[in-house]
Amino acid sequence: MRTRKADILIRITEGHRQIWSLYDQHAELSRVFDSKVDLKAAPPTTRELRFIQFVINHIVITFKSHKLGIYQKPEALEEDIRDFFSWPIPRETWKRVRRFQDADVIEFFEQAIKGTDKKA
Description:
The protein has about 120 residues and is an all-alpha fold. The protein has helices spanning about 1-25, 45-65, 75-85, 90-95, 105-115. Helix 1 (about 1-25) packs antiparallel against helix 2 (about 45-65) and helix 2 (about 45-65) packs across helix 4. This is Txe/YoeB family toxin of Txe-Axe toxin-antitoxin module.
């Protein structure tokens, strides 16, 4: 079991690195963290939406692995989620894709975004 948990930790860490390397390699993704972006004038691009979906999928994997008892989620995960979805493009993307998530994932994300920090 220990080996499996270590493998999960390595895979989650690799996924995290790949996602943020993608961000670093594509300057056009910097708009994801622009607090003044006008989504009516310039809606999220396909690349921005895809990047945010990668982040969401990564968080879902972390959450589900934690629920299965094979991964200890970071203590500040909810705070990290709240911060990430405080930006306009991630918040808009979540509104678009939340309906495709499992009910437990939606509840976890929504509580984290609102700051209620219900522990999974």
